[in-house]
Specification:
Layout (H helix, E strand, L loop, with lengths): L2 E3 L1 H11 L19 H4 L1 E2 L6 H6 L13 E5 L5 E5 L3 H7 L5 H7 L4 H6 L4 H15 L4 E2 H11 L5 E4 L4 E4 L1 H10 L2 E3 L7 E4 L20 H9 L4 H8 L3 H6 L5 E6 L2 E6 L3 H6 L5 E4 L11 H4 L3 H7 L7 E5 L2 E11 L2 E8 L5 H18 L2 E7 L2
Parallel strand pairs: 1-10, 15-16
Antiparallel strand pairs: 2-4, 3-4, 5-9, 6-7, 8-9, 10-11, 12-13, 13-14, 14-15
Helix pairs in contact: 7-8, 7-9, 10-11
């Protein structure tokens, strides 16, 4: 085993690596190259998604040039926001590592394809080509799905009981989009697909070089480390074997709660020196909450379960390095109330920190804060 590192050091390091300790407005729109989260992609799920994740990391989102960012289905099939200039490198970086990896990522779609003698990678290329041919102008997801259904053979399709209709399998559809050079229009629900500006050669026709910043294994280790191969694979929804084959050589072994983990060599000093002092209302799918060592993030089992309900995931209250409670927004007209459930003793300092976070959230949404309601 390597150097012993405490849970507190790990969480403090992640706060620092993810820039959650930067002051609001520190990073102007012209400084997106300095936003580490955009190397990995900011998950854009729900109203407090990618842009809120950037805001709590110091970015002045009100001054952002919307054309500087792009949204695509990437890791785990979820929508993520990236710098537009990085898209060719990102599109290559997020592709499956192997046939086995592709089969894992597309879940239940792999079985009928395999039975028909179609590999998962072949299927992704077929879906990508057909989607690119269909989407020659912006189209709503449902219209793309309908047109794609008419072009695909039976192994690519499934019967959808809720819709009482036949659709393409969901995950090949999502992973096929960027593979076919398609992005999502920002802020659309249902999603609108369009050809991606700056991605003239779709990845299935030939991969662009991957910038080391976008290497998804390295990025996960940097932002969610120290970690094991299994934890990184879990976050990426990749196979453990493929992640192991791509494991960086420049890593240092450390021990966390008796477990062998690794951190990038360049991050060792920051890990050992980290001391977090911050207060943030994190969105439900913020990267800080997405590590696969969930018992390290929130050791109390009841609290960990409350943080990830099956339906209606709440946001998390981050004080220092600790997740100390939950928050949920309640909008009424132009007013926003933030309901907060703290797992720690309330003090003037904690109340002031939560109030400041709620004010920032209301301003981000263009609303007036009606108040903070403490529940529980």
């Amino acid at each position: 085993m390597g150097t012993t590192v405490s849970r507190e050091q790990v969480l403090s390091y992640r706060v620092h690596a993810q820039q959650l300790d930067r002051e609001a407005g520190t990073l102007a729109s012209a400084s997106l190259d300095d936003v580490a989260l955009l190397d990995m992609g900011a998950q854009d799920t729900g109203p407090d998604g990618a842009l809120w994740a950037l805001a709590v990391r110091g970015v002045d989102t009100a001054a952002l040039d919307p054309t500087a960012l792009t949204t695509a289905w990437t890791l785990r099939g979820a929508p993520h926001v990236y710098r537009r200039a990085d898209l060719p490198s990102v599109a290559s970086a997020v592709q499956p590592f192997s046939e086995a990896d592709a089969a894992k990522r597309i879940f239940d779609a792999s079985k009928p394809l395999k039975a028909a003698g179609i590999t998962s990678l072949q299927a992704l290329d077929t879906v990508a080509r057909e989607m690119r041919a269909i989407v020659d102008e912006p189209m709503v997801k449902g219209d793309v799905s309908t047109a794609l259904t008419a072009r695909l053979a039976e192994p690519y399709l499934r019967w959808c009981r809720p819709c009482q209709a036949t659709h393409p399998y969901e995950m090949p559809f999502r992973f096929g989009a960027l593979r076919g050079g398609l992005e999502l229009q920002a802020g659309t629900s249902p999603p609108v697909l369009q050809r991606a500006e700056g991605l003239d050669t779709p990845p299935f026709e030939g991969s662009a070089p991957v910038d080391p910043r976008h290497d998804v294994v390295r990025a996960t280790l940097h932002l969610l480390g120290p970690a094991t191969v299994k934890q990184v694979a879990g976050y990426l929804d990749a196979t453990v074997a493929d992640v192991g084959r791509r494991w960086p050589h420049d890593t240092t072994e450390v021990e966390v709660d008796g477990e062998q983990r690794w951190v990038l060599d360049d991050d060792v000093d920051a890990l050992l020196a980290a001391c977090a002092t911050t207060a943030r209302l994190l969105g439900p799918y913020d990267l800080f909450l997405q590590g696969r060592d969930r018992d390290l993030l929130v050791p109390d089992a009841a609290h960990a379960k409350a943080l990830r309900p099956v339906i209606g995931r709440p946001g998390a209250v981050l004080l220092g390095r600790e997740v100390v409670g939950l928050w949920r927004p309640r909008k009424s007209g132009s007013r926003l109330t933030v309901n907060v459930e703290l797992w720690t003793r309330r003090t003037r300092a904690t109340d002031a920190a939560v109030e400041s976070g709620a004010e920032a959230l209301a301003a981000f949404r263009g609303l007036r804060l009606a108040g903070v309601d403490h529940v529980g």
